[in-house]
Amino acid sequence: MRMILLLLVLLSPPLIPALRAQEPEPQHSASPLGLIDTIIISGNEKTKDYVILNEMTMRQGGIATQEGITFDRGRIYSLGLFTRVDIQYDSLGSVHFLLVDVGERWYLIPFPIFGFRDGDPKRVYYGFGVLHNNVGGHNKKLYASLALGYDPSLVFSYVDPLFDHDNRLYAGIALSFRRARNKSEIESAITGSFDEYYYNINGTLGKRLTLYQTLGLNLGYQIVSVSQYREGRTISSDGTDRFIYSTVNYTYDSRDLAEYPSRGFFVGLGITKNGFGESEVNFTRYSADLRSFLPLPFGFTFAARAQGSVVSGGAVPTYSRAYFGYGERIRGYFKTVFEGEDILGSTVELRYPLFGPNTYRIQSLPLPPEFTVWRFGISLAVFADAGTTWYRGETLTFNSFHSGYGGGVHFLLPYGYVVRVEYAWNDYRAGQIIFDLRGSL
Questions:
Q1: How far is 142 from 156, CA to CA, in rounded Å?
Q2: CA 276 to CA 32: how far, in whole Å?
Q3: Omega within 30 of 0 (cis) for the link into 110
């Protein structure tokens, strides 16, 4: 059983996007409705028309199809700016038009922060944040938050996804402070738990190459210190690393609905260089994230993902190791921590929608109109996961991998939240109940 699971997840369709990333953007030729003489945008009292048009595959002068309407509706909703997106093809006399009608969210959102780090009820964090999700109607994001309790943090960021419309350039800046409890169980077993302090400032400049492709450069400066020094926890012997880092990343994203896709591909490739001679820190991390979502007959979706990262160069400090058991997890070993310098994992899921996602207007609640439009959906899923971490010099074999499989129910909630209630068995047939809040694979 273990060998079959590993072969299934490691040789699955996430390899397909890398081959298709350079293909032309698809033209929806099935079920043609007619020529599009013009596109009319309505309901966007604040959002500029171009923000919506930039996400659409159907253009003025092109052909409207039912498949294109369904796809573009999901792409526009994935912007996170609207509670409702409706697209209709119609005619007025000899003019054939596409009507895109949206319902806008409330963009300036103060919100409380509360949760459990890594899903552990003993690790409570809380605080307050403010998000402006659509500054000036240009889809610019302004965010600030303060979280206390377990792993306190202070974050400020600003992103303009299209500050130069003619050249399709985007930019952003972020500043943050975070005190994090050490994740390494190996180090904690030696000296007990200790804290890591992160101070970070970075800026991003990138270009949207096509509807689906972006290329970006991130440049930043980071300070990392530990409350209890031991060799390997930092590269510097004084317990504080100060270094410049830079990341080049490429993204290809043709998913129809980012939060829970039913079709499309995602490719994320990145190279991060840490240290440029100004510091003792000197290593490079190469990362890849490949995802595939294939529609099947009878409403089923086959979803698959392969992801991993490897390092080269100098020594890797504890705070830059790769982990399963925190952000990335292997179901069946959901709370088990695996650590190393490098990581490799893969997942496959077969999903069936019980209903939705559908949009509902809740008129019985005394809320502003922006909060009365909610989207809900429920899907069933079966899955198999596999993954491993390792250090340079170690040999990888099938026995190096941990795997799990199971099934569950996924609840698609308003504002892009997905709650997963699942049951998983690992490769030793030990079972566990999983309650998780996350989006797509």
A1: 8
A2: 55
A3: no
Phi-psi sector, 57: left (phi>0), alpha (psi -120 to 50), beta: alpha
Instruction: List phi, psi (to 5°) of 231.
Output: -55, 130
Nearest residue to 292 (alpha-carbon basis) of 254, 269, 264 = 264
CA distances from 313 to 273, 320, 342, 366, 433 (A): 10, 13, 13, 59, 40
Angle at CA of residue 405, ends 400 and 406, nearest 5°: 165
Q: For tokens 């052909």, what's the residue?
A: 63
Write out the chain's pLDDT in tens, 441 residues: 554 455 455 445 444 444 444 444 455 555 688 899 999 999 998 999 999 998 899 999 999 998 899 889 988 988 888 888 999 999 888 889 999 999 888 888 788 888 777 767 788 999 999 999 889 888 999 999 999 999 999 999 999 998 888 888 999 999 999 999 999 999 999 999 999 999 999 999 999 999 899 999 999 999 999 999 999 999 999 999 999 999 999 999 999 888 889 899 999 999 999 999 999 999 999 999 999 999 999 999 999 999 999 999 999 999 999 999 988 999 999 989 999 999 999 999 999 999 877 776 666 665 555 555 677 889 999 999 999 999 998 988 888 999 999 999 999 887 677 889 999 999 999 999 998 876 667
Q: How far apart are CA 180 and CA 118, in angstroms?
A: 12
Single pTM value for the model: 0.80
- DSSP assignment, residue 265? E
Pick the CATH number of 26-103 from 3.20.20.70, 3.40.640.10, 3.10.20.310, 1.10.565.10: 3.10.20.310
Alpha-carbon span 292 to 250, nearest angstrom: 17
Q: Regarding the domain delimited by 108-345, which CATH topology (the fold level of the hierarchy) does it fall under?
A: Porin (2.40.160)
Using only C-alpha atoms, what is the Rg of the chain?
23
Task: Read off the amino acid at residue 238.
Answer: D
User: Which class for 43: exposed (0-12), middle (13-18), buried (19 or more C-beta within 10 A)?
Assistant: middle
Domain boundaries, the chain: 26-103, 108-345
Task: Give the C-alpha separation, 406 to 391, whole Å.
Answer: 29
